[in-house]
Amino acid sequence: MQVKVLSGELSVHPRSYRGGEEGNRIAAKKAVERVKRRIRQILRPGNRAPWGEVKDELNRVLRGWANYFSCGPRFMAYRAVDNYVWERARHFLGRRHKVPSRGTERYSGDVVFGELGVLRLRRFALEGPAHPGCETRPRAGCGQTARPVR
Question: Pick the residue with more confidence: 142 or 78?
Fold first, then answer.
């Protein structure tokens, strides 16, 4: 079932992979394309801002997007965005520093996501949800599973 929300589209799956009843949210293709478009705007060739400012803005966009889609299975969407970020950052830095090649050796994934400080979304996929309210079966105050009153 597709659900449209203010920030994009969600695919809601009726069964949770963790056995919950509420279902999981998965980033739709349109949402992934939208974040890629935003990354492309940040890492455009005409951006003359210092790398620290560019990195901070990029990380802010990535962290917000990752937190929004942190419920449910997210590895495939995060991997697609990570690969796109690495490709765009590599081109951006290669142009800026006039690297004669594609920049794959000088700006490897470890350099971009490590030394240069860009956020790797797959790190979020391996951890739990970014916020405690993102459980597939919310808990009542008494510690019991919250169920709707019938």
Answer: 78
